[in-house]
Write a structure and sequence with these properties.
Helix content of chain A: 25-40%
Low-confidence stretches of chain A: 197-206, 208-212
CATH architecture of the largest domain in chain A: Alpha-Beta Complex
Mean pLDDT of chain A: 91
Largest interface: A-B, 78 and 78 residues
Strand content of chain A: 15-25%
CATH class of the largest domain in chain A: Alpha Beta
Largest sheet of chain A: 7 strands, mixed
CATH superfamily of the largest domain in chain A: PurM-like C-terminal domain
Oligomer: homodimer
Chain lengths: 346, 346
């Protein structure tokens, strides 16, 4: 039977050392499952696997590239590194199972920081029944490094390459919220202690002054950026292609077009926007549709399906065509689009 | 049928972008195997798996912590990140299968650097029949980051926890070579273009001057550090516990003692030393046994087995006892030892 985990006293990592830290994490991540023969604590994890299709994905988050510690907590980082990996497994129509997390940690961190980070990992792990089975911890001289690998399985795999002319294009949630949340966080420039849709401490955001809107307007946007919650498509029968929106709608749709060798039409006014996004964009005189098309980090699913198929919990935003990539505005005017969004090195 | 891979022209990553780089790596890593439904190029890799025991391990290498680019080539880094992961799978008695590599790359690198790194990865991947099936590439502001995850399988898993009093303690190769190689590289302070035990270009090492020894004396030491070649134990029947020596003999043996709840006696003069280590240590007035006991990064296997078992290709260096950790010198004098070697944060 698993012993109750007691969080360690706050101590410098240079005092407890790598092996002291591993001992703490091993106790914290202990799972009892018939399939997991061995989790953290040996040269590798040992898992009982059944015949079928395995999915393997890996995603990295680097300080000053993917996150800024001046407005992201360790808890939120831990939550997000697993969330983005889960999103990749959902994008293949799969179920996430086993997670390995590598951490490169600056020498001056303490045990509480890493304990908090793992609390975030375990929060979302529990939600999606993922087991944390291994990883590597080491010192970093180049800021905090998080590198996660997630193993899953799937009864039916959905690739990026199956879209066909005539298919509808669908998304499973509102777009642009995360990018707008990031914009707000940059303006705030400090931590917002939300865990689980609730503020842990009062954030006193400057945006509440002067009656220009309350905290309720921005909370869902901040949460979408800091604690994204991917959701699987429950019924994938008939779905021809799928991807998760991480780099932005237009760039991720372009991946489907490239892999499927097809074109696409998107109707700008069909792209689902949250009322919070619209309200915040208005307040700051920004275009919400730009955030929705290029923002990225939405972690909602983008998929295609033939017109006959009944689709629940998704919004049709366009159609797959033979060739060309077009955006249609509310007046029916057409413009071509390119794969614009977030791309590393560019 | 896989097309022949043509290395790309040397271009800045800021010109080709993340997706241009992924396209190059996808072509370079293409494998044709019935089990691999999809490698690089979708949200996750898709693999056909059979019922059995899966092994999952993950290891990270960070610039200025694990390596120094002033005396390590990209080829050697690529080779080593997979080598250290393979070593972990061998330490469990397993066979390595599928590899995912995450790279954090400084913005000013070019396509040739990453192509060279992947040539190193693919060299050792081919040697051990490992398929490179995925990963993540992104910009890093904190130096080069390599984070690898390796999936393997095993008919019989060997843990760290099965050692019993009376067992012999064995190692599968000479120790200390890699640490001495690192010492030499730090003195050299520049690249040595060895690939596959041969110098690609003449290294003109300063150590050849004055007739104090030729390049042949140091080549195997440099190679052990730059291009370590893990080797599996072919017959694991009867083996009670196993670990790979990455942090140093005494620290890794202590892991076996901790997990198995036993003690150990090591005979210092039984620890296998290469003639190159002995010769180089003599030349620089160093103690070769210190390098062998504390050096680390040997990537040879340390295991225990009952005395009755016939062991091939391994050297017995001591015995498992009930309690205590002792080093016996050539004169039979005994001293206790601690888990000393490389530990992050300390």
């Amino acid at each position: 039977m698993a012993k109750k985990y007691l969080p360690p006293k706050k101590r410098l990592l240079s005092d407890i050392g790598e092996f002291g830290l591993i001992k703490i994490l091993r106790a914290k991540c202990e799972v009892s499952s018939r399939d997991i023969i061995r989790g953290i604590g040996d040269d590798s994890a040992v898992i009982n696997i059944k015949t079928g299709t395995a999915l393997m994905t890996s995603d990295m988050m680097l300080e000053k590239i993917h996150f800024d510690l001046s407005f992201t907590t360790f808890y939120q980082l831990g939550y997000k590194i697993l969330a983005v990996n889960i999103s990749d497994i959902f994008a293949m129509g799969g179920t996430p199972r086993y997670f390995l997390l590598n951490l490169g940690i600056p020498r001056n961190y303490n045990s509480e920081d890493i304990d908090e980070l793992y609390s975030g990992v375990l929060k979302i792990a529990k939600k999606f029944r993922v087991a944390v089975v291994g990883g590597d911890t080491c010192v970093s001289k180049g800021g905090l490094v998080l590198s996660g690998t997630l193993i899953g399985d799937a009864a039916r795999v959905i690739n990026r390459s199956g879209a066909r002319p005539g298919d509808g294009i669908f998304v499973t949630g509102t777009l642009g919220d995360s990018a707008m949340g990031l914009m707000l966080l940059k303006k705030l420039g400090r931590h917002v202690h939300i865990q689980n849709s609730k503020f842990k401490k009062s954030p006193h955001p400057p945006f509440t002054k002067g009656g220009r809107g309350g905290i309720n307007d921005i909370l869902p946007l901040l949460k979408k950026h800091l604690l994204p919650d991917p959701a699987p498509l429950k019924n994938t029968s008939g779905i021809t292609s799928m991807i998760d929106i991480s780099d932005g709608l237009l760039i991720d749709l372009s991946h489907i077009c490239d892999e499927s060798n097809v074109g696409a039409i998107i109707y700008r006014d069909k792209i689902p926007l949250s009322k919070e996004l619209v309200k915040t964009a208005e307040r700051f005189s920004l275009n919400p549709v730009q955030y929705a098309m290029h923002g990225g980090e939405d972690y909602v699913l983008l998929f295609t399906a033939p017109s006959g198929i009944r689709i629940k919990n998704a919004v049709r935003i366009g159609n797959i065509i033979k060739k060309g990539r077009f955006l249609i505005d509310a007046e029916g005017k057409s413009a071509t689009f390119k794969a614009e969004g977030y791309e590393h090195f560019k």
